[in-house]
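Incident log, structure service

09:12 report received: a user says their structure output differs between two submissions of the same chain.
09:20 pulled the input from the user's history:
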Amino acid sequence: MKVAIMADSSSGITQAEAKELGVFIAPVPVFVNEELFFEDLTLTQAQFYEKLKDPNANVSTSQPNPDTVSEMWTKALEEYDGVVYVPISSGLSETGHFLAKMAENDDKFKGKVFVADNHRVSITQRQSVMDALQMSKEGKSAKEIHDYLIKSASESSIYIMVDTLKFLKKSGRLTAAAAAIGTLLSIKPVLQIQGEKLDQFKKVRKVSDAKKAMLDAIKKDFDTRFKHIVEAGKMTVCVAHTDRLADAEKFKEEIQEMFPNVEFTFVNNLSLSVSCHIGPGSLAVACASKY
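09:34 re-ran on a clean worker, output below:
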């Protein structure tokens, strides 16, 4: 059984990494001042943050082109017995729902292509891709891989410190008044993603306080709902950021010191599909179970 593993670029997996890993990545469309770009194909991370230096820059994302994804599936099935596609969480985008219907209703894909909407995004979505890849290498079928990803869907957390409120305001996730007050008081909100959506977790004023809040939250997850996963040696932890690499590397060291018995997997850029909503300067920690 030979199964192709696919995802969209919201996973944070670059096209170069995809080639190296042997997976397939559909680029997410990114709009900057109404000009269309494709993440990691016609717009790099560096170019994106350069454009954000314009205080009037208007950024947003859309779902991957269904025709592009359909073509990827069709081409893959010429070589593979099945396809598992890991989309961005349906709590953040309609992509997963739409592609699942496409896979179920098109005779070319029915029973061969499985869309695993396991409510992951960015760094936790990346872990799902790595799990699927490992299962594929072991000869598991597309349905077996899909079923495992769905079963383990809730076994992840993301906590994000946001450095500026401007982008939350622009995306409609924060009112103008709240953004103005937050900016005046130098508030740095810590947000969380527990599968379905981006929610407020805590309000702090200093980066050190934000990091402590995030580490305390991860520790609580490890000590409670994920305790059995940690004890089984099946939990991972990682760091992500938006244009804040040096601080992310330092945060990694703090996390490894605090959780020496949990596998640290990577320091990664948050995908542009997330960055559009939170802007530059953010710092995140995430945990996710592994296969």
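09:41 both user submissions now match this output. Likely a transient worker issue. Closing.
09:42 reviewer note: The chain has twelve helices and 13 strands. The first helix runs from residue 15 to 21.
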